[in-house]
Amino acid sequence: MTKGVLSLFTGSCKRVCADLSLCSKYGIISGLTLLVSFASSSPAADIAIEAQRKEPPSPAEAIRDPSQPPRAAPLSARDDWAPLGLPRLRANNRGSASRLSGEKFHVDSLNTSNDSGSRTGQSVIERDGLKVLKILSGNVWSRDMRSAASSTLFVSFRLYASVGTKFEIGGVTFRVDESPINGAASLVRLEQVRDEIIAAPLGIHVAWNVFDGHKLAGLPVLTVRYDHNAGVWDLFSSTSLVADNLLIQKESAGYTKRQITLTGGASGAWLVGLVQSEENPLFEDTNGSGIEDGFQRIALNGALLSKESTWLERRRLASAWRKSDRDKPRPALLVEPLRPDSFKGSGR
Q: φ, ψ for residue 232 (rounded to 5)?
């Protein structure tokens, strides 16, 4: 029987991940909790596996904490896990980027809004081992921005969104539209020009899928660098800079209230991760410029951009860095997927 369970586990992983090493490392499975070792094929081992399959989670474990690794992840992989896959939030300190101290970042609990009126259109579930905050169409969920108004803030999030979904960070507003690419969604930024709202494409296109019967697009992990003092923002898709030095819309209510808001589109929206960081969670960025220290030192003869650098100087350096990314693409963040309805065994 043990071999049969193992075979089922392997088959499920092949449908979920192209890379089986990702499945084994993070314990991404389809409805099963497996023992760490399958070496034994004794009846006692089979009984233990059956018990783990049938035993429901305790109330405390009913919905996984977004700041914690997957329950099925082996101990050897837990130090490599991080919320939203953000490199500087990993427990280990391998690689070139040092780990951020706990007081420098906050992993959102993904609970419903404090406003009881808004909560009627919000719910929290667990799907495929992830905590999911579900927002109905037209409903608005909000969080306060956690940094002082004078400082730079990095906001990372991961969203499964229907057409028309809006996500705003203090005057920086994104919307999910239909893409000109057939069968795909497009992420755009909204900008007010005089009395008109302009939708500007960001070059991010994601295939539509069906989740619990809803047409949603699973966006990559997005990180906004929000520079309140300079009045500008940048956008990272995974670890790559895709937009820089765009103006914060100071006429927005979100800017005045310093809030992060999510408004459900035609079929609602699912938020599966939100992290606010006082420092760059993606790579070493001593001056908070959104440009990797290593690249700054190469481009500036061993120096970093100073706080007195002009907007134009920073933009030129950011453009050069984006070009270097195109020549040598950066690695993607390692995150756990939600499986669409088309995958057998998807869901809770």
A: -130, 165
Rounded to the nearest 5 degrees, what angle is found at the Cα of 248, between the Cα atoms of 163 and 184? 20
* Mean model confidence pLDDT for the chain: 80
Close Cβ partners of 157 (under 8 Å, ≥ 6 residues apart): 84, 167, 221, 222, 223, 271, 273, 274, 275
pLDDT of residue 52: 41
CA angle, 263 as apex, 262 and 268 as ends, to 5°?
110
- The 10 Å Cβ neighbour count of residue 225 is 25
Please state, in angstroms and rounded to a whole number, the distance separating the CA atoms of residues 249 and 254.
9
128 CB contacts (<8 Å, ≥6 apart)?
Answer: 28, 336, 337, 338, 339, 346, 347, 348
Note the pLDDT of residue 150: 66
Cα–Cα dist 259/262, whole Å? 10
Q: What is the pLDDT of residues 65-107, one digit of tens each?
A: 999 988 877 887 888 899 999 999 988 766 667 889 989 999 9
pLDDT tens across 158-190, in order? 999 999 999 999 999 999 999 999 999 999 999
Q: At what angle do helices 2-16 and 43-54 cross, to 10 degrees?
A: 50
Q: What's CA 70's distance to the chain center, in Å? A: 15
pLDDT at site 149: 65
CB 9 within 8 A of CB 323: no
**pTM for the complete prediction?**
0.79
**183-201 as b/e, with b when 16 or more CB fall inside 10 Å?**
eebbbbbbeeeeeeeeeee
Distances (CA, A) of 128 to 256, 274, 345: 37, 18, 9
d(CA 81, CA 178): 33
CA distances from 210 to 12, 120, 158, 214, 216 (A): 19, 23, 17, 5, 6
Distance CA 168, CA 173 (A): 4
